[in-house]
Give the backbone structure.
Amino acid sequence: MSDYRPIACSDHERLEFAALTRQWLDVNVTTGDPVGRQRMLPLDVYTRNGAEWLLAETESGEQLTLRLDSLQF
């Protein structure tokens, strides 16, 4: 069983819209690597292994895969 906690629908929609429109977001990452405030470009939001994930690109061009419940807006 997964310990994933679904995020608010409004936050999920915001990520999907940002991915579709290629809009940069400032997001606080609470767990994983990197932790802290990050400016990122959402590329895709998807489900895998009972959790929802964000594929994003940093300003330096690094691609990150982050669980949505580790993000704060």
